[in-house]
Specification:
- The chain has 208 residues and is an all-alpha fold.
- The chain contains six helices and two strands, in the order E-E-H-H-H-H-H-H.
- Strands 1-2 form a two-stranded antiparallel sheet.
Length: 208
């Protein structure tokens, strides 16, 4: 069995809780999302390496960039952002509309911007792999812009939005959200797909 970020490769959400010895603390939905942020950041590091290589005149590693795009679409957006947009954000608005309106609006806008950049990467990849230097430079620029956007986005969520969620959501909401997140993994991605993308993240991170 492989281990990723100190956790079993084939894991379920119920195994993700960071519990202090003797405390038996219940897992929070923000614990799940913070862990996924760590996985996403690994892929962002790999994406940045590819972009810097292209900016330095190197050819695009088509298979590797294609994996980055697939990860961004299916793990970052269809899984991670879906958990936030379909479940966490609406519940935060319900519990504290005045406190959450502005930060949630910013987060949603950044999700949309990320989708636009990923679409641009996918559109330019084939031309870049065919040797179109303008397309190579455009692909590198889109990768860097996406990396910068997502790193800043994750920092805001980890340090501003998630502490707010922990404050405004009662225990029953948090339990229901963890269960809803499990349904996203099972129904939207399919059995074993969440683990597939954890593995992909480590493969991309380990490549020079």
């Amino acid at each position: 069995m492989g281990f990723y970020l100190g956790l079993p490769h084939r894991m379920r959400l119920g195994n993700l809780a960071p519990v202090e010895p003797g405390q038996g603390a219940a897992m929070k939905p923000t614990d799940v999302l913070r862990h996924e942020h760590k996985v996403i950041l690994m892929v962002l590091d790999a994406a940045e390496r590819e972009a810097l290589s292209m900016e330095g005149g190197g050819p695009p590693a088509g298979a590797r960039v294609s994996q980055v795009i697939e990860f961004c679409r299916n793990f970052t957006d269809r899984c991670h952002h879906a958990k936030e947009e379909k479940h966490l954000f609406p519940k935060m608005r319900e519990r504290s509309p005045l406190a959450t309106e502005r930060p949630l609006g910013v987060m949603m806008g950044e999700h949309q911007e990320g989708r636009r950049l990923v679409t641009g990467m996918a559109d330019g990849l084939l031309r870049a792999c065919d040797g179109d230097r303008a397309a190579v430079q455009g692909l590198a620029a889109a990768l860097i812009e996406y990396v910068d956007l997502l790193r800043a986005h994750i920092d805001k969520e980890d340090n501003v939005l998630f502490p707010l969620a922990d404050k405004v959501l009662p225990a029953e909401d948090q339990k229901a959200l963890v269960e809803a997140f499990e349904k996203i993994e099972a129904e939207e991605l399919g059995e074993g797909v969440h683990e597939k993308y954890h593995h992909m993240a480590h493969v991309l991170a380990d490549q020079p």
